[in-house]
Every structure is written in structure tokens, then in C-alpha cells.
Write a structure and sequence with these properties.
The complex is a heterodimer of chains A (about 80) and B (about 625).
Chain A (H helix, E strand, L loop, with lengths): L4 E7 L12 H10 L7 E10 L2 E7 L2 E5 L1 H4 L2 E5 L4
Antiparallel strand pairs in A: 1-2, 1-5, 2-3, 3-4
Chain B lengths: L10 E7 L5 H9 L3 E5 L6 E8 L5 E6 L11 H11 L10 E7 L4 H12 L3 E7 L1 H6 L3 E2 L1 H8 L3 E3 L8 H14 L12 H18 E2 L7 H9 L4 H19 L1 H22 L4 H18 L2 H17 L1 H14 L8 H6 L4 H6 L7 H10 L8 H12 L4 E2 L3 E2 H28 L8 E4 L7 H35 L16 H13 L6 H10 L5 H12 L8 H8 L2 H13 L4 H11 L3 H29 L1
Parallel strand pairs in B: 1-4, 1-5, 5-6, 6-8
Antiparallel strand pairs in B: 2-3, 3-4, 7-9, 10-11
Helix pairs in contact in B: 3-7, 9-12, 10-11, 10-12, 11-19, 11-22, 12-19, 16-18, 17-18, 17-23, 17-24, 18-24, 19-22, 20-21, 21-22, 24-26, 25-26
Classes of the chains: A alpha+beta (about 80), B alpha/beta (about 625).
């Protein structure tokens, strides 16, 4: 849901989301380098026009666009339980 | 170098930073007009070098290295940054001082890069750029503390207002004197090391940076509209529509002026030089050839003006966000949107800008389809044929038939590009899907100086091409279509006896099934140099043929060609690989002859097939 906020509790590339292209460890490194790191605060800002993909998130002080496939590797604890 | 640098001699500095940190603006502010744009040896990454002088008279050369988040390079651009910093780049010296450029409002990621840069053993100076925006937002940075924590000098700059430059220059000079370059300890970090560096950077930010009291809210508000699933797409489409309208209508007065300038020049030549070979060489060869191409400079500049403005504003990343899924359906990366958009001006800058795409297959797919985008060199061919053959009528009173045909040609290019890329991805490279993670930069007002400089660089590249390859080809076609002259008492037009005429007659059987006359075949030959040259060549062929008024090439064609032939010629031009420079750029970018050969083969096959189908359908239908 747009507007949802939370904190990143884990970053590990899910093997199922990395068909070909880059391997798990590489995807994990890319996520980390883009600022998706444990402890960072995220807010879902926008969803893409087709099928809600990619998504745009606020990540601490920056805004980042990411496809849902890649976002699967980022575990977020949403504020207010869940 | 083992000892500290002597206080004389040249200091080599390099600018390194995240994308969108105002690095190029800082480079421009430091070096002004004293810069040179070329390529790095062996790769086609643009190499921007400039120089300036310190207060005590030392010369500092500066390299503006491609933006990156890490030295762990993924794209050819980022590889250049890594290799330049490590001193591994062929023909380049290791820099004495690295200036890490940071967007002062967004320090987290760049501090991790700074930690990496320090590992390389070079002296590092951190420039907190866009410091005025940070101040306006009420962001407080403890500069001295930051400098202590990082162990490097930290200065503040506002590149767009040329503030803080003297301090930065002084720091660079003293860092160069003090530094003893050591062996690089940099190794490609693994995930644990990246996390550790992140936490160090995070801790530094928490300690020395107080979050903004008045954070920027504009970017969020603008994004609320521009990234809206409905309005965002509508605005993107309207922008594209406006852009193409502007390409045609804004450039019209300038194009008219250039045209009348050349016709005045021609009249002058006619008045001064008596009729004969020399006059023909100047008017039919040089003026008609070069003038016919220079006319497109305004269109190319308007298109680039839009692209540069949108890029500077921060919109291009949003366009990639909006288009990613749509392009992804055809197997293209969202980032391919910008190169493909540039290809509407010219495939060459488009193909060169695919370097922002990390993955090899994504990049190759984009390169392979870029020439299918309707570049502005096709516009003169299209407008000439459309004006001559398509009636200037309106359907339902408001849709121009000519405009509709033009739109159809653009659409044919786009659809076939998507189809070709789809086939490439689904058949040849099935498995490779690259991640899409992209920063959406903060919006900022475009900087006029930066845009003007870039626009000028584009104009220069185009003019150099017009002066070089296009002038040469114009002269070549003139020679080919003038010599040998007709025998005395010849009845046919003179060009029938020339080399070009004979070549055209020779190749004509090959092209007869698609309805081309020998004159058209003649015009296609120089059209290989650049598509638009075909117009000049048609002009030369028909003007020298003595059958047409050279100022009314369109009406001459209307008498000579059938409608089916004209449509077939248009279809040919949608697909044909009629541009040797594009093929040469593909060779350079892919570092192999395989890809330009594949490109030539698939495009000429499509062109012949499309022209064949169009010609026969049109012939059958019209009859």
C-alpha cells in the first residue's frame, strides 16, 4: 500500500528471484550499494502504471525505483505490527 | 612516484561522485571553457578533461569521471572510473588527488564511496556540493568533525554559483603536496564488507549531520503528479508530443533562414562564376550537398534541448520508471528509454548513451534496435516524399493526412524496434534478466550554462560531420554523376553517361522488384554516408539530369515516380541500414564486427521485405 512505512530488517537475495542475469550474492551487493541495508527506513511512495511495477520507495534521504522482483530480497518490518 | 610531489609541476586531479551530485557542474565551474571532450583509448566512454591554475600558479588538470556508487564497476562507464582511480587505465596516469563530489543533501551513499576511495591510496578531498540547498533546508553539517572522522579535507561548494571554488582548489593543491601515494589496498568488497562500510558511513552521518529542519517537499509533490499511474503517463505522452511538435515547428524559421542563406550564396556564385564545371561543382556539389544537410541542425538542437532540459531537471529517471514495464514487455530495460529517445535525434548519441545500462544483453538489445528509431536524418527524406506524393488534405477536417503518414512512419519504427528486441530476448537471450534499481534524483531547476555547453558540443559534433563526411560524399556524388561527360550529340540526359548512371543501371535489376528506378539506386549509394545525403543526391541526380528545376525536387519526383514507388521508398527508409557512421559506432561500442554485421543484415532484409510488400500492395490497390 502506498504510504506504508517500515524499517529494513534483512537483505538477502531470494534464489527464486534471480533467474539467470545476476546471481544471489551479486543482487545482494547491488541492493546494499543502492542503500537497501538493515536499519534503513523505507516508505512506499509510488507504484508503476502497469501492474504496480516497478515501485518507488523513499529510502532514508533518497528515492529509489526498484522492480518488485528485486524488492523481494528486502525484508521490511512495517510500522504498527505485522 | 615514491616521494611527495615537488611543489612544482602539474597536479592531476579526478572528480568522482554518485550520479546527480552536480559533478559535471563543478567540473564546468572549475575549468570553464578550458576543457576537451574525447574518448578514452580503446573504449568509447567520453573522456572530459580540463585544467585550471592554483593561486600560486600551478596547473591542475581535472578528469570528470563517470558517476558511480561504488568502485565495483558494473557498466563500461563505471569500469573507466574504477580503472582511472586505480591507475590501471591504458594511457592514463593515476590521479594525484581524487576530488570526491557529494550532494550535500544526500551524504550516506557517497560517504561509503569515499571510504572505498581512501582504500586506493590516493589523496582524497571531499567537496560537499549543492551546499546552498543544504543550508536552505536547514541541514547542519559539522564540517570539521566530518573531516576528522574521514581523515580527509572537506570543503563546501556551490558549483552553479561558482562558490567555494578557491577553497577547494587550495585543498587540492595542498593535498597534492602533502600526499605520498601508496599502493592501493582496494579489493572488491563482499556483502559483509559493504554492510560494514555502510554502518561506518551511517554512524558518521548520524554524528556529524543534523537532519534538515525544512526538508525538500517539492520533489515529493512533483512526483505525486509525474509518477501518478494515469497523469504521469499522460504527461509523459504529452511531453513527447510537445517535443516532436517543437522539433518541427520551432525549427522552421531557422531552417528557412538557413535555406535562403544557401540560395543567396548560390545566386552569388552564379552571378560571379561563368557557367561550366567549376560553377556546377560549387552549386550542385558543395552548396546543394552541404546546405541540404545543415538545414537539419535546428531540428537536432531543439530535440537535444528537450532531452538535456529533462535530464537536468531530473525527469529522465522518472520516464524510465514509467516506461520500465512497458519496455520490459519487449525485453528492454527501463534505462533503455533515454538512449532510444536520443535515437530520435540521431542513433549515434543514442547508441553511445547505452553505456548507462549495466548488463551486456540489455545493452546489446538496445544498441541493435536504436537505429530503427526515426532519426532526424530520415526527416528530410520523409518530408520530401510526403510533400510530393501525399495530398495535403484533412480527414474529418482536422487530421492532416500528411501528418498521419509521418506519424505512421514513426510508429512503424517504434513497433519494429520493440518487435526486434522481443525476438532477440525471447529467442537468443532467454535467461538474462537484469535487476532494475535506480535512484530518482531530487528535482532541480535546469542550469542554463550547463545546457548551453552541452548543446554546443552536440552542434559541434554535427557540424564536424557535415564538414567532413557529408561534404566529401557530396563531392564524390558530384564527380560520379558528372564524369565522364556525355558524348557530343547525345540525346539522353548527361547523367546517363556518367559513372553513377552506369552503376545505377547495373544495380537496378536488384531493386526493380521493389519499384526503384536507377536514379533512386544512384541516390542510395551516397545515402550510405548519411541518410539525409540521399535527398541531396536525388537533387544532384535530377538537377544534373537536366529534367527538373532544382528548387522543386519534390514536384520533379512527383512526375517521375509512381505513388507505389514513393511508398516503397519510404518503407525502405524506415528499416534500411543507410548510415555507415552508425555501423562504425556499433563496431566501436561492441568491439566486434559481429554486431554491426548482424545489424546490417537484419535491417537490409527488413527494408527489402517491407519495400517489396508495400510496393506490390500499393500497385495492386491503386490499380
Amino acid at each position: 500500500m502506498t504510504g506504508q512505512t517500515g524499517v529494513i530488517v534483512g537483505v538477502f537475495a531470494d534464489p527464486s528471484s534471480t533467474v539467470g542475469g545476476v546471481d544471489c550474492a551479486e543482487l545482494e551487493r547491488r541492493l546494499l550499494e543502492a542503500g537497501f541495508v538493515e536499519g534503513a527506513r523505507v516508505t512506499l511512495l509510488h507504484e508503476g502504471p502497469l501492474g504496480g511495477d516497478p515501485i518507488a520507495v523513499r529510502l532514508d534521504d533518497m528515492r529509489v525505483a526498484i522492480r518488485r522482483r528485486e524488492a523481494h530480497g528486502v525484508l521490511v518490518q512495517f510500522d504498527g505490527g505485522a | 612516484m615514491t616521494a611527495a610531489n615537488p611543489p612544482t609541476g602539474i597536479i592531476r586531479a579526478a572528480l568522482v561522485g554518485n550520479p546527480n551530485c552536480g559533478k559535471t557542474a563543478l567540473f564546468n565551474a572549475l575549468t570553464g571553457a578550458r576543457q576537451k571532450v574525447a574518448n578514452y583509448a580503446g573504449v568509447t566512454v567520453e573522456r572530459k578533461e580540463g585544467h585550471f591554475t592554483t593561486a600560486d600558479g600551478r596547473t591542475v588538470t581535472v578528469l570528470d569521471l563517470p558517476g558511480t556508487y561504488s568502485l565495483r564497476a558494473r557498466s563500461p562507464d563505471e569500469a573507466v572510473t574504477r580503472d582511472a582511480v586505480l591507475g590501471r587505465l591504458a594511457g592514463e596516469h593515476r590521479p594525484d588527488v581524487i576530488v570526491a563530489v557529494a550532494d550535500a543533501t544526500n551524504l550516506r551513499l557517497v560517504l561509503r564511496l569515499v571510504l572505498e576511495l581512501k582504500e586506493t591510496g590516493a589523496a582524497v578531498v571531499l567537496a560537499l556540493n549543492m551546499f546552498d540547498i543544504a543550508t536552505r533546508q536547514g541541514l547542519r553539517i559539522d564540517i570539521a568533525g566530518l573531516s576528522r572522522a574521514l581523515g580527509i579535507p572537506v570543503t563546501t561548494t556551490v558549483a552553479t554559483r561558482k562558490r567555494g571554488l578557491d577553497d577547494l582548489i587550495a585543498e587540492v593543491a595542498s593535498a597534492a603536496v602533502a600526499s605520498v601515494p601508496t599502493e592501493s589496498r582496494w579489493r572488491e568488497p563482499d556483502t559483509t564488507q559493504i554492510r560494514a562500510a555502510h554502518h561506518r558511513a551511517e554512524k558518521i552521518v548520524k554524528t556529524y549531520v543534523r537532519p534538515p529542519a525544512r526538508p525538500d517537499t517539492w520533489t515529493a509533490r512533483i512526483d505525486g503528479v509525474l509518477l501518478h499511474p494515469v497523469w504521469g503517463l499522460l504527461i509523459l505522452l504529452s511531453l513527447l508530443f510537445l517535443m516532436f511538435q517543437a522539433v518541427f515547428s520551432w525549427s522552421a524559421p531557422a531552417m528557412g533562414a538557413i535555406e535562403s542563406g544557401f540560395s543567396l550564396l548560390e545566386q552569388g556564385v552564379v552571378a560571379v562564376i561563368p557557367e561550366g564545371l567549376l560553377r556546377s561543382l560549387i552549386t550542385d556539389g558543395v552548396i546543394a550537398g552541404v546546405g541540404g544537410v545543415l538545414v537539419f541542425l535546428p531540428q537536432i538542437l531543439v530535440l537535444f534541448l528537450f532531452i538535456l532540459l529533462l535530464e537536468d531537471f531530473g525527469y529522465m529517471a522518472r520516464a524510465a520508471f514509467l516506461m520500465d514495464r512497458i519496455m520490459g514487455g519487449a525485453g528492454l530495460h527501463g534505462r533503455a528509454f533515454i538512449p532510444l529517445l536520443s535515437s530520435f535525434a540521431c542513433a549515434i548519441p543514442g547508441i553511445m548513451s547505452t553505456r548507462v545500462i549495466d548488463s551486456k544483453h540489455d545493452r546489446l538489445a538496445t544498441i541493435m534496435v536504436a537505429p530503427l528509431m526515426t532519426c532526424s536524418a530520415r526527416i528530410p527524406v520523409y518530408t520530401l516524399i510526403i510533400a510530393a506524393f501525399i495530398p495535403n488534405r484533412h480527414i474529418n477536417g482536422w487530421i492532416s493526412l500528411q501528418g498521419l503518414v509521418m506519424f505512421g512512419l514513426y510508429a512503424a519504427g517504434i513497433i519494429s524496434a520493440l518487435a526486434v528486441s522481443f525476438v532477440l530476448r525471447k529467442i537468443f537471450w532467454r535467461s538474462a534478466v537484469e535487476p532494475f534499481i535506480m535512484e530518482l534524483p531530487t528535482y532541480k531547476a535546469p542550469e542554463i550554462g550547463n545546457i548551453a555547453r552541452n548543446l554546443w558540443q552536440r552542434a559541434e559534433i554535427f557540424l564536424r560531420r557535415a564538414g567532413g563526411i557529408i561534404l566529401t560524399m557530396s563531392l564524390l556524388i558530384w564527380v560520379l554523376s558528372t564524369f565522364p561527360g556525355p558524348p557530343t550529340g547525345a540525346l539522353d540526359p548527361a547523367i546517363n553517361y556518367s559513372i553513377a548512371g552506369r552503376l545505377g543501371h547495373l544495380l537496378e535489376p536488384l531493386f526493380r522488384p521493389i519499384g526503384f528506378s536507377w536514379q533512386m539506386v544512384v541516390a542510395l549509394i551516397p545515402g550510405m554516408a548519411a541518410r539525409e545525403v540521399a535527398v541531396a543526391a536525388l537533387g544532384t541526380v535530377y538537377a544534373i539530369g537536366g529534367e527538373a528545376d532544382p528548387t522543386a525536387l519534390g514536384s520533379a519526383l512527383a512526375h517521375q515516380w509512381s505513388l507505389a514507388t514513393a511508398l516503397s521508398f519510404l518503407a525502405w527508409y524506415v528499416f534500411a541500414p543507410q548510415c555507415a557512421s552508425t555501423l562504425a559506432v556499433v563496431k566501436r561500442e561492441t568491439n566486434s564486427w559481429v554486431w554491426p554485421s548482424v545489424m546490417f543484415a537484419y535491417m537490409i532484409t527488413l527494408a527489402y521485405a517491407a519495400a517489396f510488400i508495400v510496393f506490390h500492395l500499393a500497385s495492386a490497390w491503386i490499380r
